[in-house]
Amino acid sequence: MIYIRNLFLFLIFFFNLKFINAQVKLPALVSDNMVLQQNAKVNLWGWASPEEKINIQLGWQNATVETIANSTGDWKAAVDTPKGSEKMYSITIEASNKIVLNNILIGEVWICSGQSNMYFPVGKENGTWKTGVKNYTEEIQNANYPNIRLFTVLTNTSPKPLDDVKGSWAVCSPNTIKSFSAVAYFFGRELNQKLKIPIGLISTSWGGTKAEAWTSQNILEANPDFLPILEDDAKNEKVYQEKLENYYLNLKNERLANNNDLSKSELKKPKKEDNKTSYVLYNAMLHPLINYTMKGVIWYQGESNSGKAYLYQTLFPNMVKSWRDDWKQGDFPFYYVQITPHKGQTPEIREAQLLSLKRIPNSGMVVTTDIGDTNNIHPIDKQTVGYRLSLIARAKTYGENKLVCSGPMYNHFKIKKNRIQLFFDDVGSGFKKSSENLKEFEIAGADKIFYPADAKIDGKIVFVSSEKVKKPTAVRFAWKPVPEPNLFNAENLPASPFRTDDWIDENPVK
């Protein structure tokens, strides 16, 4: 009798287990409140039993979409979306179980990634570097935008590519905006107001991280220039393991000496910053997003790569290319922020970002020399950053062709006797200076010694000279960690720092 009862219980358990395994499951991104990219073929995906049939009913069409899970239970369906609007939809996904997704909008979806200046939230978090943006109390109170949806990818690392992230879609409100990326929010808010269309923002960022952490292992291993990065990671891991071994050895000895009483122990376990290791953020916080159809990316990162700025000139464009290869959406828009002035940064990292404009197709760069903070690497004026990113998107992605979206960008120079003529792109309606004399221009001759220069505007050309340099060969502009330049175009967008030379050995300004 006991045997029969146990067999019966086993069969019930087995049946329930099989039923549970057959349940259709969805990734975190495919859920209530999400925004799907308009006028596109977007992916819906998840997991089920092997070979299981899945029916999908879309709120904007009558026909049912059918798909079948593969031999490992993975399934994906590409569905067509209509033009974006404020209309809310539901999606029903059904197999052995039924999932109904509600409050879905169709609009524009952007990935927002980088390190701490992208992670920096709208609201203040006491006792941390998260000081809140300029006028954060007012900004939070006014953040009632139900057609903007927010998804924050929770921080995570992985040595192997993952299939899912932790996080959930939220409707933008004073309660949900406090902890959300400020740059992403102000960017999305501008697009929402100008385009009159729902905006979905997926924030995946982590403070203090390097570009190599956001780059796939394959890309890093394929390029000989990047192998030293992986070699350094291996050395750091070895050092950490040695410290950990010594920690546990000393801990064991203390236990033996104090009869397991560790109350007086001063041993400190070595700290491991997993997020600073190559490709671990790509694996955990980017790879799981690749199925999600989107419009483009905004990026704010580079501070942690400033010590190897020359390598960043190659690493950054390769990272972008790898993302585009993975998403298989062509050269989607990739707009980024040039690092703001700060005493710990270098002009070379801004140069690497400037040069990347020509190496990354369909890209754009926001200059921030006028909104930095000498002592705070997290300047609080994130409104301007988000606004300038939105200008680029509106002009380059959304067809506002006459909109000036960039400050003056150096193009080339000509030597005219004892002066150098500088020619620029993106001058817009003309140059503008915020004070009487142009600042931060330097000039040098063949001896490579730079002197402060006199700079004058003549139409859309800038003439640079110095009495101390009779035969000039090179000019630099805002070439220091914390420059204070005052050259803008009439649209109030600042000129990017640059140099006309490529000299490695630098001499101080005299």
What does this structure look like?
By secondary structure, this protein is an alpha/beta fold. Helix content is 27%, strand content 26%. It has eleven helices and 23 strands. It has helices at 2-21, 116-119, 136-141, 174-177, 182-195, 217-222, 227-257, 280-286, 309-327, 347-359, 382-396, and strands at residues 35-37, 41-47, 53-58, 64-68, 74-80, 85-94, 98-114, 145-152, 169-172, 199-205, 296-300, 334-337, 363-366, 409-416, 419-425, 431-433, 441-444, 450-452, 454-458, 461-465, 474-477, 487-489, 498-499. The strands form five sheets. Strands 1, 3, 4, 6, 7, 8, 9, 10, 11, 12 and 13 form an eleven-stranded mixed beta sheet that branches. It has a four-stranded antiparallel beta sheet with strand order 14-15-20-19, with no helix packed on it. Strands 18-17-21-23 form a four-stranded antiparallel beta sheet. Helix 5 crosses helix 11 and helix 9 packs parallel to helix 10. The longest helix has 31 residues, at 227-257. The model is unreliable at 11-20 (pLDDT under 50).
What gross morphology would you assign? Answer: globular
Q: In percent, how much strand structure appears in the residues?
A: 25-35%
Give the number of DSSP strands. Answer: 23
- The average pLDDT is 92
Taking the sheet with the most strands, its summary is:
11 strands, mixed
Secondary-structure class? alpha/beta
Distance between the termini: 99 Å
Provide a short characterization of the protein structure:
This protein is an alpha/beta fold and 510 residues long.
